[in-house]
Specification:
With 92 residues, the protein is of the alpha+beta class. It is built from three helices and six strands, in the order ββββαβααβ. The protein is 40% helix and 28% strand. The strands form two sheets. Strands 5-1-6 form a three-stranded antiparallel sheet. Strands 2-3-4 form a three-stranded antiparallel sheet. The longest helix is centred in the last third of the chain and has 17 residues.
Length: 92
């Protein structure tokens, strides 16, 4: 599977999520495991609730946080790969 800036990602229907103290906890129903994301990860999670191109997610994070676009892109792709592997998001 290729995941790049043109990919469109969306939260899987096989998960439950809740915000707790600025962080988000996600329960992957397929694996029966909990996953936690920090404040930036929680913002990414908000953005993937509807099908969204990865480039738009990167642009939103760069606009909202003090981060280099290249570093943001690398970190975002790493996070999205982890979410795909955990079956928490789908690539369309």
């Amino acid at each position: 599977m290729t995941l790049d800036l043109r990919s469109v990602v969306v939260a899987s229907s096989d998960q439950l999520a809740s915000s707790i103290g600025g962080e988000t906890v996600i329960l992957g129903l397929k694996a029966g495991r909990y996953y936690g994301v920090d404040q930036v990860g929680a913002r990414v999670w908000q953005l993937v609730q509807t099908p969204t191109p990865v480039a738009e997610i990167r642009n939103a994070i760069v606009a909202e946080y003090d981060v280099d676009p290249g570093r943001c892109e690398a970190d975002l792709l790493k996070l999205l790969h982890q979410l795909v592997e955990a079956h928490l998001i789908e690539v369309r």
